[in-house]
Write a structure and sequence with these properties.
The complex is a heterodimer of chains A (103) and B (475).
Chain A lengths: L1 H6 L2 H10 L6 H19 L22 E2 L9 H6 L4 E2 L2 E5 L7
Antiparallel strand pairs in A: 2-3
Helix pairs in contact in A: 2-3
Chain B lengths: L3 E12 L36 E2 H13 L3 E2 L5 E4 L9 E4 L6 E7 L5 E11 L3 E5 L10 E5 L6 E7 L6 H18 L11 E11 L9 E6 L2 H20 L8 E5 L4 E4 L12 E2 L10 H10 L4 H12 L6 H8 L3 H9 L4 H14 L9 H13 L4 H14 L3 H8 L6 H14 L1 H8 L5 H12 L6 H14 L2
Parallel strand pairs in B: 12-13
Antiparallel strand pairs in B: 1-10, 1-11, 3-6, 4-5, 4-15, 6-7, 7-10, 8-9, 11-12, 13-14
Helix pairs in contact in B: 2-3, 5-6, 5-7, 6-8, 7-8, 7-9, 9-10, 10-11, 12-14, 14-15
Classes of the chains: A mainly alpha (103), B alpha+beta (475).
The structure holds zinc ion.
The site of zinc ion has 8 residues of chain B, from loops.
């Protein structure tokens, strides 16, 4: 575990959890750090290979330029779009007070 | 601010004039009833998948080509953040591989401003804050309309090559004209379809290192862009000269109060955790396709200015030429040249009388305009008369000969004759001075010039009497 702990620390995991707005307990923090370190260790096997001449893979599928014609189609009726919202006001989604400006 | 140099880079977002959103087939339409152009994709409902709009890619390539960029293979990333304007909790954008990279834009004065990149991304929904006077921090709650969520944007990032608020304004003005010329954007800054953020820093004159920059947001006109930059430069210089340090941060321009303020009270470096969007494949523009778009693009403003300037015998950066092209009046110059009329006169009339009545342009046909120029050049109308006739043509339509006749401008007597004489005298000021001083034979020169200038329509006997009277009055 010592080698793995260098790949990712509990502080890293706590930071990412906070960015993802996840509440994790100290016990979970320890557990997830170990699990994530194992995942990273697995990916680290690739480092053993010489990949100097290999371009980065943008996507696992051998596809490009999957495009759609610019033609409008009806979406959801407004009642349906708003039906799943916890709160609605003036035909809009009502959300709690926002803390801070948009990024 | 002596001793300090301003360094500005601009980020311009433009909405694209597509029929539909970037990743779904909902209508891209401003002003519709809230939440009527939404679907599972742009509402971020589980199981929905984005599919890229072909026309948005076409527009992004046009913009890249018009800005002399490399158009390159690109991919999409997710930019993660928590804010209710994006229901997915991420915005799909382009990150390390934008579609357009490394170009330039030429300002009317000839300066080239580097373009670092231009990339595709989706717009956010519109939030309205309820209670607390509509201010976000004091609001009771907020309401969200997702009609705009997913509308295609191209963000154009300049290099930090701009050195003043005036240059920044000129850059946005030119970029807007280019975007409109490509057909990609309507260029309406006041309606929010063109949005500008400014990265501003200052450094001692002669220094090549960059100072710490602040990003200033929320300018909704060219005027507020200039004001915000001037304010921010003064603030930073005052700070540094007072022994302080500029803190890298985002600042909000308050148009009503005329100042910028820090947007975040607590220090939180934004970590968007960008990662490749797994639901979208790369966009790889075929070089032949890009060449086809390049060939089909209409002339850009810089090229149009050169053409108009050449025809009129003026400098491309002269105000009249810049105005004519900015207002899209160059077809009138082309018609003038084709008819063999005076293109210099055309540009002057277009940049003044026509520009000031631009809302009535539909009343003015190129043929009528050229006819008016001919009448003025031939001396059928004085400059003042031609201006009056042109204004009437713009406000009410009609042909110039009829309007001139209605004004009684054809027979040159009375005030019209006085006006024609004023011009002849003004054009021959030295001769006039000698005539007033006693050189009688110069009267013939003025009469001859008047006859030429009025195509023989002036009452020459009356003109001679006026000349003698003016000389007697010593003016
Ligand atoms: Zn949609």
């Amino acid at each position: 575990m010592a080698g793995m702990a260098q790949r990712i620390t509990t502080a890293d995991v706590a930071h990412v959890a906070r960015l993802a707005r996840l509440a994790v307990t100290d016990e979970e923090l320890e557990r997830f750090t170990g699990q994530l370190a194992a995942v990273l260790d697995h990916a680290a096997d690739i480092e053993a290979l010489d990949l100097g001449g290999v371009p980065p893979t943008a996507h696992p599928l051998p596809l490009a330029n999957v495009l759609r014609e610019d033609v409008a189609r009806p979406g959801l009726p407004r009642e349906e779009a708003l039906a799943a919202a916890p709160a609605v006001e003036d035909d809009r989604f009502r959300v709690p007070r926002i803390l801070g400006e948009a990024p | 601010m002596s001793g300090w140099e301003t360094v500005i880079g601009l980020e311009v977002h433009t909405e694209l004039r597509t029929e539909t959103k970037l990743f779904c087939s909902c209508a891209n339409r401003f002003g519709d009833e809230p939440n009527t152009n939404v679907c599972p994709v742009c509402l971020g409902l589980p199981g929905s998948l984005p599919v890229l709009n072909a026309r948005a890619v076409d527009y992004a390539v046009r913009i890249g080509v018009a800005l002399h960029c490399q158009v390159q293979p690109s991919i999409f990333h997710r930019k993660n953040y928590f804010y209710p304007d994006m229901p997915k909790d991420y915005q799909i954008s382009q990150y390390d591989l934008p579609i357009d990279t490394d170009g330039w834009l030429e300002l009317p004065g000839g300066k080239r401003v580097g373009i670092e990149r231009a990339h595709l991304e989706e717009d956010t929904g519109k939030t309205t804050h309820v209670g607390g006077g509509g201010r976000i921090h004091d609001a009771d709650h907020s309401l969200v309309d997702y009609n705009r969520a997913g509308v295609p944007l191209v963000e154009i990032v300049s290099r930090p090559d701009l050195r003043s608020a005036d240059e920044a304004r000129a850059y946005v003005d030119e970029l807007r004209a280019i975007l409109v010329a490509t057909g990609a954007s309507d260029g309406k800054m006041e309606e929010g379809s063109l949005r500008v953020d400014a990265n501003v820093s200052v450094r001692p004159v002669g220094s090549t290192a960059f100072g710490t920059r602040c990003e200033v947001k929320n300018m909704n006109s060219l005027r507020s862009l200039g004001r915000a930059i001037d304010y921010e430069v003064a603030r930073q210089v005052r700070l540094v000269e007072g022994g302080g340090e500029v803190v890298q941060e985002t600042r909000h321009w308050n148009e009503a109060e005329g100042h910028t303020s820090s947007m975040r009270s607590k220090e939180e470096a934004f970590d968007y955790r960008y990662f490749p969007e797994p639901d979208l494949v790369p966009v790889v523009p075929d070089p032949a396709w890009v060449d086809g778009i390049r060939a089909a693009l209409p002339a850009m403003p810089a090229e149009l200015r050169r053409g108009v300037a050449h025809a009129a015998g003026m400098a491309p950066e002269s105000d009249a030429v810049v105005t004519v092209v900015r207002l899209g009046l160059e077809p009138f110059v082309t018609a003038t040249v084709a008819a063999g009329a005076d293109a210099g006169l055309a540009v002057r009339r277009l940049a003044n009388e026509v520009a000031s009545e631009i809302g009535s342009l539909a009343n003015l046909g190129p043929e009528q305009f050229v006819t008016l120029l001919r009448m003025e050049s031939a001396g059928d109308l004085t400059t003042a008369q031609a201006r009056t006739v042109l204004k009437d043509m713009l406000t009410g339509g009609g042909d110039p000969a009829g309007i001139a006749a209605a004004h009684g401008f054809e027979a040159l007597g009375g005030d019209a004759l006085e006006a024609a004489l004023d011009e002849v005298v003004a054009d021959n000021a030295d001769a006039w001075a000698r005539y007033v001083a006693g050189e009688d034979k110069l009267q013939g020169l003025f009469i001859g010039r008047l006859r030429g200038a009025t195509a023989g329509k002036a009452d020459l006997a009356a003109a001679a009497a006026i000349l003698r009277a003016r000389r007697a009055a010593g003016c």
